């Protein structure tokens, strides 16, 4: 026997048991956990007073509660020819059907809601919910066309969907992460459309999403008990949900909002893509969608869907748009070629600017060098024309200039070396100068003086 169950969890567990199994379970519970047994009794007694036996309430979730001999095959009900049974679930039996009035050739599915659920919720409520579903018109939502009554059964006529459940598809066909996310976006579009029409799904799970050969989903089996709380005298609500995908507030029996479906979508996304590394975009999206408190989740399915589309297109998700480096990285991932070209142009521009600045600095230095050289030449001519130095030897003048060059801190070293090398050229012999000079040229004496 399971232990550590709350009253709500125990009641939910009993939904899947036959009446005989329920009695056996309760007998063991009375011996092993009397306190929990006494807590569950008010719920069972209230049900017994209301409907005469426990299966009246258990019926709409437990498959066993649908009578095994209930069969509608080959019946003509209103304008529909009922064909073979295609499934049984918590709410009733689903049959394939076709119109028999020769007006439209349609392949349909007819769901017969079991009488116990009808007695609990009321026909008016069921038809009201069916009417809400009939207003939904989306390519990824199974369309509801009609409804009616047959004997004690309320039936709903809907689109017959061909395909396999999401679980079957993922188990049998390997899909890439990109394909899974594209498929999840389509499921989100269906749920967002329902929310825009004030309709919750309240039972999102892989079995309620059929996938065709083109990987297009059809969301079906909206939980029409979503707005109804069946409470007993101890205020314990009657719950119908899928344990793995239901939100915390749905498990507690609290009022459901759009955030309840968002939680289930986050769980469905985790089911589809598996556990993701911490701090990745996909992990952050799943964590936000499945926050325990509803006000910490996405405010709408559209916001959740937008972040998934950002992941698909390599754009920043909403939670990280304030991080500049992350935004730049996403831009590079999204447009690698243009980003590489832009980066190359930026590097070229920086390199050109640096070269231009360096060249400008070099020109400034060369200008200063030229000015210094001009100053030295001017100084040399000044000394050569003075009366005091008119008999100064060329050698002395060169030595004086050499010293001025060496003592000038503004002249670069390589310029100084070139100038000093030029000044080391030997002075021509006086006889050779005399032989090659014009008669009017000044003569240089043996002492190296100019005459």
UniProtKB/TrEMBL annotation:
<feature type="domain" description="Protein kinase">
    <location>
        <begin position="80"/>
        <end position="332"/>
    </location>
</feature>
<keyword id="KW-0418">Kinase</keyword>
<feature type="binding site">
    <location>
        <position position="111"/>
    </location>
    <ligand>
        <name>ATP</name>
    </ligand>
</feature>
<keyword id="KW-0067">ATP-binding</keyword>
<dbReference type="InterPro" id="IPR011009">
    <property type="entry name" value="Kinase-like_dom_sf"/>
</dbReference>
<dbReference type="Pfam" id="PF00069">
    <property type="entry name" value="Pkinase"/>
</dbReference>
<keyword id="KW-0723">Serine/threonine-protein kinase</keyword>
<keyword id="KW-0547">Nucleotide-binding</keyword>
<dbReference type="InterPro" id="IPR017441">
    <property type="entry name" value="Protein_kinase_ATP_BS"/>
</dbReference>
<protein>
    <submittedName>
        <fullName>Serine/threonine protein kinase</fullName>
    </submittedName>
</protein>
<keyword id="KW-0808">Transferase</keyword>
<dbReference type="InterPro" id="IPR000719">
    <property type="entry name" value="Prot_kinase_dom"/>
</dbReference>
<dbReference type="GO" id="GO:0004674">
    <property type="term" value="F:protein serine/threonine kinase activity"/>
</dbReference>
